[in-house]
Amino acid sequence: MKDNRIIFAVIFLLIIEVVYSQIPVGLKFDLNGQPFNGYFDPFTYSPEKKLSVVHNSDSYEVGYYYDCLDNKINGQIKFENDKIWFKTEKNDYRDKIRPDEIKYFVIGVDSFFVVTNFYYKNKLKTKPEFVQYITEINGNTFARHYHFTSGTAQQFGFLPPIIETFLVKSKDSDTWENFPDNERFKENALKYFGHIPYLEEKISSGDYGNENMMSIIKMAEYNEKYQNKDLIYFDNYWQEINNSNKAEYYARITNRMDSIWTFLYFKNSTKLYKANYSSFYPNTKNGRFVSYHSNSKERQIIEYENDKPKEVKIFDKSGVMKTHYQYIETENTTTSETDIDIVFISIIDFFGNNLIDSSNKFEQIVNDDFASVSYTNRFFKKELVTSYRLINKDTVFQITNPDYDFKIKPLQKKFNNFMTDKEYNEALSVNAQGMILVSFIIDNKGYVVDHSVLNGIHPELDRLVKSFINSRLVQNAEFQHKFKPLKKNKTKQFCEIVIPFEFSINRFYRQPVNYNNFHHMHWQMHQQHMMNNSTPPLSMPSGF
Fold first, then answer.
1. What is the DSSP letter of 510?
2. What is the pLDDT of residues 286-345, one digit of tens each?
3. With contact defined as beta carbons under 8 Å apart, do 42 and 437 qualify?
4. Could you give the angle at the alpha carbon of 365 between the alpha carbons of 361 and 367, nearest 5°?
5. What predicted TM-score, i.e. pTM, was given to this entire model?
6. Interhelix angle for 213-228 vs 184-193, to 10°?
7. How do beta strands 394-398 and 491-506 pair?
């Protein structure tokens, strides 16, 4: 190959100032054949296959409450169905928190307060109960009420364990209205949200009902923030919060066109992302999602259609596009399943030539500056068919085929068994969730011969992943796992892959931390057990 084809300008991957949300991982592929293009972006990375563990939380969490005399009591709080327990220290005797004895309580950043005079199943209830604060919009306070059904009602009445009801109260009212799932829903919803044209249309047509209440409330809240030019704050794990002093990131809504909302995300003054959404909770990407270099130049643009990536453009730090590819779906006539192919439109060399146009079959050398290695890429008919590098005398291939089946299920079973008796209460107390990426080198027999952890979430979770690798995956481990070896030309080869380890928390009162990437099916399965983060109404004492 000529030098102008050997030098592929991937200098665009270099970045001196690295922010937490844009973690450099190099020119690697995950076990789904999905390219990282240099960085791990939590907002865009959503792998189909991964090792995952969901913590169904029944543990105590750091919190506090205010008693009827406005005294703040710090300690640990735990939900146990309709009972709420409190203790000041880990080994102390627990006590029950009662809505007739306290005013408010907080778990992490989730806020609960007491209401009376609220409607449930069209009946006015006067006995005090706890509800969770959601937000305040146009002077109206929104909350969510939980009703815990008995085992008999679940078994014979086919009722869910938890029935959620959305409540709203205007500042001039003493009574909380609800949004029942019946013919009165449309009337009530239009009363509070009919001033927003898009919501008025969706509610009037019946496209939005009671099951869409969280999306409706969030759109109304964001509409007010957009009009008032208010910022949206996030903690270290991209959990939305309202306390700017605890925020690691923030977003500004820069445009709203019908159903499309444009968000611009920052860390301090560094611009990170620009995203278009068509709905919220769960968020659905539609249109462009832009990631930026530290100099605010576009680094990567992904075009989404109903949350699915359709094409990707990658730019160097000066703003010149270097790579452009598309995700093409084709039906597999053998399996009747849909295959996804990555088809390259352009690969621009150092001299500005499009290598895709010059030949059906060509080769390039790609320099991965993060890992200080070089890959040889081979293309055939606009597809990357091989990517490899040399380690000593071994040729190590990357898995670049999105349809390659790496047999992850046996490893998931081992990961489940490993995590069964593990505790990570400190991570739970700060709601630490997300993905840890680990790069593995696997020999031609299917055994791990080397690995590197590419990022971290929380020290406890990081240690668990490393312990699992050392005890189950690496050479000489007591329960060493054997992978399916990669075959090239019917010959077993050395290969390298990135495996994502995902940690998430299942609480009935809290929405998943990464709702920006949450799949709709997953959301429907868990929406009765999750809740968003928020802050209390303005009427609550300062410091709550």
1. B
2. 999 999 999 999 999 999 999 999 999 999 999 999 999 999 988 776 766 778 889 999
3. no
4. 150
5. 0.86
6. 10
7. parallel
